[in-house]
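Moderator note: this is an archived Q&A kept for reference. The question asked for a predicted structure of one protein chain; the sequence and the answer are reproduced below.
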Amino acid sequence: MHVLSLFAISAALHAVAANDAPPVQPLEGVALTIYSSADPAGFDPQRWIQQQRQGVENPWGVPGYGVVKVVRRVELPKGSGSLSFTDVAAWIDPTSVSFVDLDDPQTAVVEQSFQFDLVSPSKLTERYLGRKIVVSSPVGDAIKVYEGVLLSATQNQLVVQMEDGLHIVGATGAQITLGELPGGLLTKPTLVWKIGNSSGGTHLIRATYQTAGITWRADYNLVLNGPENAADLSAWVTILNLSGASYPLADLKLVAGDVQRVEEQRPRGGSGGGIVGSPIRMADSEGFEEKSFFEYHLYSLPRKTDVMQNSTQQIALFPAVAGFHVQKEMLFDFTGGMGVADTPMTAREFEMNTQGNPSVFLQFVNKKEERLGMPLPSGKVRVYKEDPADGTLEFIGEDLIEHTPRNETVRIKLGEAFDVVGERKRMDFQIDTNAKRMSESFRIEIRNQKATAQSVRVLERLFRWKNWKIENANAKFAKVDAGTIAFDAEVPPEGKKVIEYTVVYTW
């Protein structure tokens, strides 16, 4: 068995596939698939770029990874020999490398090393130990030249053996002249393979590997119309690349879904804070093409793009969608978070009298009939509305959405209403422990100070026990689930609506 069995398995699978179907000769180039585990609530790509500029590198903390597929023509030695494969990502996982010779499936890699000893001033200086160098160091207003053999280069100090003895020279501010570049130093991260090959010559190969330091996230901009019953939607994909490599003219794919991955526990870098601002109007260009892939969703860009290292970039996820139907909802949930008790909750002193403003939501169905219907990756939705006084867009709220399949409902919380107030009071409580029966009566008053009528939904959690019955309700209600009912009220302009009901528990 080869030292790296993954290479042999990959070659064998390629050979099997070649026998089952006519071979498709891939074109030279790079393809990049990016996976994300970013939390859209706290992940801010600009934080990572700022840390990178400050010299703080934490690619393992970037919430995501990439799969890089490179097809390239190389010169293979006949028989056994070595092949250097350059321009790989600096944060490659060498154990994930797969190699296939597309011209000769029998070619096998028997050993691999990842060489990352890249050229830097300190490494160069270390390589000249025992060799002659010239150091020009400022001394006051003059320049003093030291020419001799370098004996040591540590802690920013150089020890130079000259004819008149040893000299210790500070490297800060000094100009160092070196001779010919010694071997063994690289300018780019490189994979070096020991290869067994029968034919030699120019071959087309494909190398695949995973790398840390790259991720993506989705951001949505929704513009609400004047009557608040329709909206326009645009979407960005933001890519962060700190992988230590650029991918010019890449075929780009994004994977949305919770892909299981076994990872070593590493310290995660700090990130947080969103970007709030007016939405950029995207051109009506072609966005990503989506398809189901296993239990996930794959988004493929139908054109090539450059994904450059140490950068962020935005790409339209899909062409902007205009005028789809949305529904606005005001919701009172005075007892939100209360679940049904495991045993009857008979304590008389436990009551929830409260008042406040309703939460405001927008919702729409992600369906083709509304010119939507693409599965939406999780992300942040920012909502704007035009001010008719000057035609500018004003920010009115934002929320997060989870991965949302087609035909499912997207629900966005925008904030709390200002001019609508609700008040909930318990009016009566009765309990008969011998009969195993208790009742509780409530009065809910909703006041609307707007000049237009407002539709308001009131959720009531029947948390004292699972067996209940509603009596003496003065308004229609709907059963939402085993422990929740909902009243839908139309509140007149500058008026109020009162809801009263009694709930009877038995056990």
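Archived answer notes: The first strand starts at residue 29 and ends at 36.
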